[in-house]
Design goal:
By secondary structure, this protein is an alpha+beta fold. It has a single domain, classed as SH3 type barrels (Roll). The protein is built from 2 helices and 5 strands. A 5-stranded antiparallel sheet has the order 4-3-2-1-5. The longest helix is centred in the N-terminal third of the chain and has 9 residues. It starts with a helix and ends with a strand. One of its GO terms (biological process) is regulation of DNA-templated transcription. This is Veg protein.
């Protein structure tokens, strides 16, 4: 993954509308995996529309800082 916030945003801008999986650290040894579609990017955050079969809520947002600090990992389906 890129090493600056601008490069992370640019990479995600190029992948709008694609399916992805987000693996987020939820505690000491706990992770949450969420599958969805990259919907929108904003200056500080990006929005993922979640698959309704797997999740109880509609969308979730993450900051680019989460990606930079490796609090979340993003894997697109074609990778």
């Amino acid at each position: 993954m890129p090493v600056t916030l601008q490069s992370i945003k640019a990479k995600l801008d190029a992948k709008l509308g694609q399916k992805l999986m987000v693996v987020a650290q939820a505690g000491r040894k706990k992770v949450t995996k969420r599958r969805g579609t990259l919907k929108e990017t904003y200056p500080a955050v990006f929005v993922v529309d979640l698959d309704q079969e797997e999740n109880s809520f509609e969308r979730v947002s993450y900051s680019y800082t989460d990606v930079l600090t490796k609090n979340i990992e993003i894997a697109f389906d074609e990778e």
